[in-house]
Amino acid sequence: MNVAQLKSGDAFGEEALLANTQRNATVTMLADGSLFRLAKIHFDEILRAPLLREISVIEANAIVARGGQWIDVRYPSESQTDRLPEALNIPLGEVRNAAGLLDADREYVVYCQTGHRSSAAPFLLAQRGLSAYVLAGGLAARQTHQR
Length: 147
Description:
By secondary structure, this protein is an alpha/beta fold. It is built from seven helices and five strands; from the N terminus they run ααβαβαβαβαβα. Strands 1-5-4-2-3 form a five-stranded parallel β-sheet.
């Protein structure tokens, strides 16, 4: 099944590096070319740190209060029971494709249950020119903060 065709300069596999999971796809070159591989430690130093902006519950609530948007990157089945009011549900695997439908003038706060999975989404959105943050600790932190 052909999911996407990458062009020169495109990247793949960064979701797995960001979320510290296994890569979920196989990539096959259709023609001769060069592939540049970046070790996780170098990826974290060069790319992840500048593009991953982790914020607290208080900062996230302030962004949403001034017009920002929550994005829940969990699967729809996970999101059904405890999604934040007015949050968009865009599962992590769909973030790359959905980025073009988001408003470039709006800020986004991305979350999952623990903050682990959602750490990849702001990176992917920032690559596409969007301003996005990850809620540190995810919904679990937000629920703890509200007690």
